[in-house]
Amino acid sequence: MRSTRTAAAVMTLLFAASALSACGSDSASSASGDGTKVYALLPQGTDQPYGTEYLKAMNAEAEKEGLDLTITNSQYDADKQASDCQVAVAAKPDLIILWPAVADTVRPCLERAKAAGIPVTVTNSDVKEEDKSLTAGYSGPDTYGQGAASAEIMCELADGKDINILQVEGLTGNTTAINRKAGFEETIDENCPNVKIIASQPGDWNKDDSQTVTSEMLTAAGAKNIQGIYAADDTMVAGAIDALKSQGLDVKKMLITSIGNTKLGNPLVVNGELDGTVFQSSAWDGQNAVTLAAKVLDGEEVDEDLFMPSVKVTEANASDAEVTPNW
Amino acid sequence: MSTPHGINFGEAPARTRVDQLRRTLGRRTEGRAVALLAVVLVVALVMEPLVFSAYPVTLSRVALVGLVALGLTVVILMGELDLSVASTVVLAGVMMAQTDNVALGVLLALGTGVAVGLVNAFFVVKVGINSFIATLGMLFVLKGLAIVISRSEPIPLENITFAIQFGLPIVGPLTPRIVIFVLAFVLLHLFLTRMRAGREFYAVGGNRQAARDAGIPVDRRLVTGFVMCSVIAAGAGAIDTLERTAADPTAGSTVLLSSFAAAIIGGVALTGGRGSILGTLIGAFSLGTLEVGLTLTGVQVDIQQIYIGGVLLLAVMTDPASLRAARSSLRTSLHGVRARSTDRGLT
């Protein structure tokens, strides 16, 4: 009995030892650069499709730039990210890349980094306007521009004809949702007032909710009066298309646009159900987070946000290599 | 040598200091946690000395999970579970952000804790639902409430300057969170070891019928335990909210498992009656140091979870009770093999 217990205890010790020594060797292998240490505080990683591709691109670019990159994943827990941020500041890196888990909660982290003299660049989704002065720059999708690009596709499709469309928005209060909606609506007003948004409801980034609100809007406005739909992302447009089909409408005749060009949305464009979408590339996002960090480290002054180009994807280019969906 | 009553029971066995020490140690439940902590500290010293030079960070990580774990220990000692702690943390934070006055907010948060504890205790004690099921239900109810009340958006605190101040050290490297954590530890330790009501928690968890027969007010102790646990979780929620300057209905998702892990690694038996607050503290320290060490060296969170899960499994496996069970089942099967082989020999 005693010997079993001792053996088990020894096993525990060996296990814990291997845990820590494993991490020791990890850092040794990544420390191939010129010793420039960068911490990346992310809220997702290999646990999400977007994060998986993002990480690949980020690591590849860091190797090219010769940065010693340490990545954390807070799994969208703001407390965990705050703690990760403390750890990062204590490690005194040359720069911190921050992808806010929750934009409202990153102020203490930014203040801490500032007090320690560590510059912070922001990736994927920006901090709040009043916190921008604490950061050294932003790279990521231009959420307003994405809405605008989707509107431009819609205007081309309408081709001057008077049509009525429905809008499915993202999660209420979410910054991305607000910006995409503004980008879409303002561009429609400016470029093609012949397109009228006669109803608009939030689909909460979710296929089922989108299908439900689309059905409701179709019923309320009369399915015959609707010639098109814009949804703020590919997941929701898939729900909207299902709603149209279940009301017996011919999806291919309707004008439908969205944003994303994901592995869900791209095939819909190829088969002609979705007329156009806007590419949000996770690989671009991860790569440019490092590009921006390298610029700041080189002492370059970054005044403007580094925006992801909002590439339009329609049936004509949906199968091209440069718009192959990566998440 | 005679007893105070004058009856001679014969010579008491000679007790050396070593004997006494061995006896005291034999009663302790923290052994595995101490061993793990020693290994983590030694390996960290060699591999990542930053864990020590940045000890305020390690301390605050320990306090982040440790506070909830301390409260949880009280419930586990009584042989019950509280799965709703993480949701209590979140709901208390959201309640706190309902008012612009920080003091009033903290009171609201703690009040939420009392209410949650009473509801949990009501289901377990009065209705008689298994605490696993009752608090699992509460986990979802409270989380849903937090999301509904906050309209699923983070609520920034009005007084951001104070909140940011709250996250900064007051004495040396000690932030208010660490001070509160240490205070909670000392108070709970004294309560469970020096006060009658606290010591009765062990009896409630060890053998409930015997405790009832001995005249211990079991139901009242259970209610006290659940309320203590929830109030501590609510306090942790208030601290979290202040430190991140906003209440976030989705925060705290990683707290539940870590706090259970800290208690179990600390030698607190899930069956109740065995364990100590000190054990949970050491468990939280080993876990916190391991996490910070792994994070500092950039180990991906998925891999970290494998290590933490492994340590947890080993902690449970090296529990004396499970070892005994494993040994006897091994012996039985060996016995069977031997018996069969002799049978064959006869025919």
From TrEMBL, chain A:
Highest taxon in the source lineage: Bacteria
Alphabetically ordered keywords of this record: Signal
Domain annotation Periplasmic binding protein: ranges: 40-301
Signal sequence annotation: 1-21
PROSITE patterns reported in the protein's UniProt record: PROKAR_LIPOPROTEIN
Entry's family note: Belongs to the bacterial solute-binding protein 2 family.
A cellular component term, taken from the record's GO annotations: cell envelope
Gene Ontology terms for molecular function: carbohydrate binding
UniProt protein name: LacI family transcriptional regulator
Main location: other
Subcellular localization: Cell envelope
Pfam families linked: Peripla_BP_4
Classification via InterPro entries: Peripla_BP_I (IPR028082), SBP_2_dom (IPR025997)
SUPFAM superfamilies (alphabetical): Periplasmic binding protein-like I (SSF53822)
Organism: Nocardioides ganghwensis
